[in-house]
Amino acid sequence: MKKKLIVGNWKMNGSLAANAALIAALKDGLAAQAADAGCGVAVAVPAPYLAQVQALVEGSRIALASQDVSQHAVGAYTGETSVEMLREFGVRYTLVGHSERRQYHGETDAVVAAKAQRALAAGITPIVCVGETLAERETGETENVVKRQLAAVVHAVGHCVTELVVAYEPVWAIGTGRTATPEQAQEVHAVLRAQLAAATTHAQDIALLYGGSMNAANAAQLLAQPDIDGGLVGGAALKAADFLQIIAAAD
Ligand code: PEP
Hints:
By secondary structure, this protein is α/β, with parallel strands linked by helices. It has ten helices and eight strands. The protein has an eight-stranded parallel β-barrel, surrounded by five helices. Helix 8 links the parallel strand 6 and strand 7. Helix 1 runs parallel beside helix 2. The longest helix has 17 residues. The protein is globular. Phosphoenolpyruvate (PEP) binds next to strand 8.
């Protein structure tokens, strides 16, 4: 069976002390679980804490992820972080196209696709976030929106499509406590899987994560859906006990 992947997105939260306490609690909790416990685990941390968290997760099951990456290689792009910089800190995954980046920073499908390409070329796995707003869901646009967002990336990365991780995150479910039902999530995941299957014969091997108010109480049901291969977890990833329960549901 394919291993699941649980990624915590800390967003703009944390401090040196809080990060150390959270990672210590996660490491304790993971050590208490079966040694061969199965799912992949990663935390997407704010850029200033990459070095700290890299050192803290060393030798553990927890991989390091970035919340964003520049589409550019190097140069006059104030405030941005390049893939080569991320590589120096052992970053294994980077989110691209999180809805908060699309909404507050004007990231277009083309920018998201360029970021995914840039990450792949550096050996960092992009976690490509797609998802519809509430208005788009209510007007029946969900399928069109997520397909358009994913198509831009699939087109840009060509045969590297199998290296992607895709996260379906309905915008109306992010940070709202309003989760998609397992059926709603599965329906969209099946659409995304079919779209990937048109691009590669290995679509089953591509991890499709669900994100949007996933928590300790709803994770197991969501993760039981046939096309849900893991979770992208925001708020609940900041509480060690909750995040550990989500990981346990995926193991
Ligand atoms: C997210 O930020 O990707 C997310 C899913 O947040 P939350 O779990 O808090 O809804």
